[in-house]
Amino acid sequence: MPSLKRQSSLPVRQLSLVFLTAIGLSCLRGTTPCRAAETPDAKPVTTTWAAGHPELLELFGRPFAPAGIEHRKARFRAWPSKEQRFPFAASQPTLVRGPKNQLFAHCWSVIARSVDGGSNWKSLGSPPRGLPTPTGSKLLKNSFDGCGITPRGTLLAHLTVQYNDGRPYEGFSDPSYHTDLYVTRSTDNGATWETPIQLNRGPRENAGAHRCRFATLADGTVALAMGTWFQSESGPLPKAKQFSQAFLWRSSDDGKSWRRDDRPMCRYGAEPDLLALPSGRLLAAVRYQRHKLPGDPDLLASPHLLRSDKPPFTKSRQVGKGLVVRNTAILHSDDSGKTWSEPRLVTGFDEQTACLVRLPDNTILLVFGHKTDGSGQRFMASFDEGRSWSRTVYQLGQNCQYASTVLLTGNRLVSVSHRIIDGVGIFHARQWSAPKKTAFSDGGFWTPRPAEPLGVARSR
Prior knowledge:
By secondary structure, the protein is mainly beta. The chain contains five helices and 29 strands. 46% of the residues are buried.
């Protein structure tokens, strides 16, 4: 927050607007597009993702502003659940349901199983982690990022190895940086694992490192939606191409071999979650996230950077710096994934990494993590396969991160997350039941807008 102790020649009202901008309160309530600050001639200094999404601004409020925090406390209803801690290190665990209501969760290095609805968990051991890297390269990270189970009961795990030529980590701008995605399978409940197979192909195609779970499609095909990016042939990747795309990999032989769809699900889609509906629709939730790109409005700013920036907010408006959007988006396919709808933002900023659950009455729950008010989980509902969403949002848990969720018999739900204890992420499971349908419908519904363009006020 900038200091206001020094003398200023600005009129009181304009000085107040600058101060309110610094703490994120300069927007009017309701559906008025946001202006982060005003100059003496009343021209806007910044704009954010919220300018084109007034319904989200009204529902979720400002992400980091004190008024936004109070707004969410007053508006989002607390929902009861039972949370338990278990002795496994974890970072953004994923959860799937197997035969006979068995639950399988990926923790930091092990797969844990529960046979009693999440009340108790036992380690099944670790998938293989010794993934290869090219000769002369430097290993940056070797990670276990998600699990799944096939209709035949085969356990699946996806793994990622990241490496470069030895320079400090830079990410997309490093032409030597690569990520390789692998899948391994176990047919004996994790007692033994097959040699991992690589999914991404060629020197330029990179994939993996996104925490997400496998899904089963209507025809029994196993699918993995995953973030992918393509390295430049030489030199740093141009800023305009420094982004991930979500692609779908499929296996029709119980996870033994995989093929990637030719067309991406969407750009800027991280940590996808996929749900096959009885109608044939594929519904997906992604963490819609990107930096500012060339071609964005000059005034578009990163909410993260605005917290520590000062007028005229030059740092917050830089191309390639900060995040101008990090929300949950919904998209769908009605042709088995050949084509996908444009992503639509469905949560506020930093309300992201979501999963989709279908209840027996065809209600779709979107359960998502947030980092706006500490950390925790929230959920909302759709009655029409993701076209519209409830204005009623529930607060499920606090001080724990991420929210991978499955449905058990009897309308019981289990969510897994990690809670930081003494600097270490620890695995937690939460048991709960969904509200009645009328609890959502009484508050009404709204229809999300397309995610892009960002920072531009627009009518429907």
